[in-house]
Amino acid sequence: MTVLEAPIETHPEVVLMSESDIASTPSAVGNVIMTGDHTVIGRLYVIAATIFGLFTLAIGSLLAFEQANLEGVSIFSGQEVYAAMFGLFRFSLLFLVVVPLMMGIATAVVPREVEAPSIAFPRAAAAALWTFVISGGIFIGATIYDGGIVDGADAQATELSILALGGIVLALCLASVCVLTTIIAQRREGMGLGDIPIFSWSMLVAGTMWLATLAVLLGNIALVWVDLRGLGTQFWEDGTGALRILGWVTDQTAIYVFAIPVLGVFASTALSAADNAKPNIGVKAGIAAFGVLAFGAYAQPVFNPNVTTQPVFVVQSMLMILPILVVMGGVAVAIMGTQPRVTVSLALAGGAVAMLGAGILTGGLRVFGHFVGGLRELDDWNWVENLAEPFDDLAGTAIRGGLFRFVALATLIAAIAGLYNWAPTILGRSLATPLGSLAGLAIVGGTFVAAVPEVINGFLDEPDILPTGNVRDGVELLNLISGVGLALVGVGLLILLLDLGMTSRRDDEIETTETMEAVA
Amino acid sequence: MSAEAVTKRVPVAVAPRARTVQVGTAFAISGVLLYFGTLFGIYLNTRSQFVKSGVDWIPGDVDMQLTAPTIIAWTFVISLPVAYWAVFSIRQDDRRHAYLAFGLILLLGLMTINQAAFNFEAMGLIADRSRAETLMFLIGGSHIVLTIVGLLFFGFTAFRALAGQYTSKYRDAVQAAAMFWYVIVVLYFIIWLMIYVAK
Q1: Residue A465 clears pLDDT 90, i.e. is over it
Q2: Best residue in B19, B29, B38 to probe A by mutation, most A CBs within 10 Å?
Q3: Which residues contact A7 (CB under 8 A, 6 or more apart)?
Q4: Quick one: which of A43, A154, A197, A275 has the fewest CB in 10 Å?
């Protein structure tokens, strides 16, 4: 008898099933829930994030419409509810919509790109997905049930909200580990780090920075949760509650780490539109530099009140635009001499980079006053004083909301661009181009309309949270316009969901050949 | 059907990529280190503010003794060579000693958890009385959770080893579990120095 070593994994196709096994085979729903298939996991991320996105954008619009009349609270039942919804909007848009959407695309696409047999630790990837979905549902439910991450609400619901937020962050950490391990340990033999396709490269940088940022955020969440369990007497201060301690993650420069894949999607779609032109070192170096410069988990004003005025933070914020220019330059050099086809995904990815650039310029404006102050200390440059005056004291104003919207929604646009680009890989079929154009127009236009008024409101002294009646004329109208912009983004997502639904009902052949071409 | 015919129908097993579990564990460890780094940073920052303002950092009601934390530290020290013993035994295809090492690690890990719980009780720690206690409770509690995760990792590896999975050629998960355990021990030593020795 031949002696074999114990097989490590059994190929599913050679397992003989007994009748009792067949009888206990899970249903279609069971198959989806128990799946370890990275493509299915990716699809589920996309669907869940899109549904969460519709809800989040509706809340965001209501918040903006609420601010359209600053004489009192009329849409929500009180300031506490308004503050709770404000926290829900910021954290949901980031952790229930933008990051999971990109994670879903990465889960489906990265293993194919690096020619791995599957995602590393498929069961862990599935566990991350379901932890995200369940925690996301609990986070929204607990916030609506008088919870949220602000003070003054129902204590138990607030505890549950924070615990659920911890679950979401933990799930995203786990999903990041799976994607990173796939790229590092599961890629094809002989494929060096320099050979990794550009989107996978951006996910390698993004996953590393996400893990670094989310682990720090998890530490903060654990602190506020334990503090709140102990009746909130130590760190849980003033009316903004945990938002004060956790808010750094929705602010510069930490928020930029979530936008790293924007550059990867843009470069990837541009290169594939130009007959699969080869990426150059500039593109990859630019993405890596963006990732390194984006690290902002150290900038926590609660524990270091002056951090946003310190030279490291100011220079870091001012330099953020450079890697984007390097990536765009690298892409331009790579596609030079070719005739790139303009596709929906390329147009969307271009829009995403434009919005990200606008967000980074907004961030630059916020620290410009401190930057000029630093220059004055270096030399006797008093002439710049007048130049810096309009930019003083912008830090706590609505400009922060504008920056958040620009960057978060840029990432959302890039994710949708990725979805259209890799639809054959993720869904097995291409998405409808006309609907994609319509959705893209709504989302890019909506982002611009939602973010620009917030930036202007920053100069008109509107505070970021809990505005009062003491603001300049025009703020209310701009808030109304901003709300319309968010609603427009929501309409774009609805069109995307419609396109996803119609595509899944189409009975054409699964485009395996196209899938492989798209991946290549 | 003869046994030979059955074995011939089984295809050659596809060997998992080397070091996949170790790479995944390394990423997880980096996350863990940043999590604890955050807590340590908050602890030191808050303590320095108290010290600067001349207020006692640790309230008088807390009975902070060094005995129990030091015993925990020694227990962790003993567990270090035992974790390596598990890896070494698997590398030598010495399964009996590997099982013994796995068992000992689980025992030593449970001992540290028991001692940590006793230490919290003996100190009279109340989570919401002061910032120091909130942070000590959080850091100590997080380390207990991490120890439980490490034990589950080792337990899972031991379970698979009992099923005959790991060999001298494929010992990735055992090495990863040991690596994770070393980090747990190092983190405890930082806690021991920062909280109990430096006070």
Answers
A1: no
A2: B38
A3: B10, B13
A4: A275
pLDDT in tens, A236-270: 665 456 788 898 999 888 999 999 999 999 999 99
Cβ B134–A9 below 8 Å, yes or no? no
Is the model more confident about A108 or about B6?
A108
Which residue is closest to A208 within chain B, CA to CA? Answer: B27
Write out the two tokens for A377: 């200390």
Question: Hey, of A15, A121, A162, A181, which one would you mutate to test binding to chain B, going by the most B CBs within 10 A of its CB?
Answer: A181
Q: Is the dihedral of CA A404, A407, A412, A415 positive or negative?
A: negative
Q: What pLDDT is recorded for position A37? A: 86
- Distance, in angstroms, between A376 CA and closest chain B CA? 31
Q: Kindly state the average pLDDT of the residues A157-182.
A: 94
The whole-number pLDDT of residue A50 equals: 92
Please check whether residue B10 is in contact with residue A14, taking contact to mean a CB–CB distance below 8 angstroms: yes
Per-residue HEC secondary structure of A398-435 comes to CHHHHHHHHHHHHHHHHHHHHHHHCHHHHCCCCCCHHH
Q: Please tell me the pTM assigned to this model.
A: 0.89
Q: Give which of A438, A421, A446 is closest to A497, Cα–Cα.
A: A438
Looking at residue B82, its pLDDT comes to: 95
Query: What residues of A are in contact with residue B7 (Cβ under 8 Å)?
Result: 1-2, 4
Contact residues, chain A, for B41 at CB < 8 Å: 303
CB pairs under 8 A between A and B: 129
Tell me the ipTM for this assembly. Answer: 0.89
Q: What does the alpha-carbon distance between residue B38 and residue B28 come to, in Å, rounded to a whole number?
A: 15
